[in-house]
Design a protein that fits this description.
Blueprint (H helix, E strand, L loop, with lengths): L5 E5 L4 H5 L6 E10 L2 H12 L12 E3 L4 E5 L2 E6 L9 H11 L3 E4 L5 H10 L2 E4 L5 H7 E8 L9 E16 L6 H5 L7
Parallel strand pairs: 1-2, 2-3, 3-6, 6-7
Antiparallel strand pairs: 2-9, 4-5, 7-9, 8-9
């Protein structure tokens, strides 16, 4: 396996730069990331199927599987912690989400399955692992809460839009060539 090199990326992400990334690459992000967990995924897909617009344009934005801990400060929000949540919970809908919304990068923990891997390959996207338990490190990279949508789902399930600087380290574990790091190292597979 090649040596781990740092790649700095800035949103909006393009398919061309994402297709250059390979499993094992270390990425630091600056720009805009948006969170979405189970309920936000389902609502976004269902509303799009019904021809309704969704409040966030995910094209070129990074999708982060995260339910942040936030505090209201006057008319704005402060992020206390923003660690990743287990990504495999979104496996049933992630491929469709990638196709519908043009997501180029997904961040989470624990990896995803075959359907997501195929969608990453087909549509030019990657999956990156962020270390579980590093919620404070993630929060330090968040400069501002730019927007929040669907708070009626609850704080963890709402879509949070963050501006970030040097968000990482992120390890590319599924790339746009169809490779999955967990397959390469023989790690536990969710589908077995």
């Amino acid at each position: 396996m090649k040596s781990l090199l740092r790649t700095d990326l800035k949103t909006p992400l393009t398919e061309k730069e994402i297709r250059r990334l390979r499993i094992g690459d270390i990425v630091y992000l600056s720009g805009i990331i948006a969170t979405a967990r189970d309920q936000a995924h389902l609502r976004a897909i269902n509303e799009t199927r019904q021809g309704k617009p969704i409040p966030i344009d995910f094209r070129g934005v990074v999708l982060y599987h995260c339910g942040p801990i936030v505090r209201r400060v006057g008319d704005s929000w402060s992020v206390i912690a923003a660690g990743p949540t287990t990504s495999y919970r979104m496996e049933k809908v992630e491929a469709e989400f990638i196709e519908l919304f043009g997501v180029r990068m997904i961040i989470g923990k624990g990896g995803m399955g075959k359907k997501t891997c195929e969608a990453l390959h087909k549509f030019g996207a990657v999956y990156c692992d962020f270390t579980g338990g590093a919620a404070l490190l993630a929060a330090k990279a968040i400069l501002n809460v730019e927007d929040v949508a669907w708070l009626d789902l609850g704080v963890p399930e709402a879509i949070w839009v963050f501006s970030v600087r040097d968000f990482g380290p992120l390890l590319v574990t599924m790339d746009s060539t169809g490779l999955n790091y967990r397959d390469k190292i023989g790690a536990w597979n969710h589908e077995s």
